[in-house]
Design brief:
Elements: H1 2-30, H2 34-52, H3 55-90
């Protein structure tokens, strides 16, 4: 019985070492995908938000029609720049 316990303990140690090595290898493989997956996650979050709040889509379309596409592009550009500046200032 004691020999069986020793064998089980050795097997357990071997498996733990193997799992540790696999975790390191997996972390190395996944690292280049971290940024693209984060971007995809943000895109999915935005789509879910718009699905839950369709009034934002309607409001955007109304805004575009009201200001016409040419005039609204100037405001959209300003809004985009403002948003980028605010994001950098707030550190997000």
């Amino acid at each position: 019985m004691k020999q069986t316990l020793i064998q089980l303990a050795e097997r357990r140690e071997h498996l733990i070492a193997r799992v540790s090595a696999q975790r390191v290898a997996l972390a190395d493989v996944i690292e280049p995908w971290r940024a693209p997956l984060a971007l995809a996650d943000q895109g999915l979050f935005a789509l879910r938000f718009l699905k839950r709040h369709p009034v934002w889509i309607v409001g955007s379309v109304v805004l575009l029609v009201t200001f016409r596409l040419g005039g609204s592009m100037k405001w959209l550009r300003r809004g985009w720049v403002s948003w980028q500046i605010a994001r950098r200032v707030l550190g997000r």
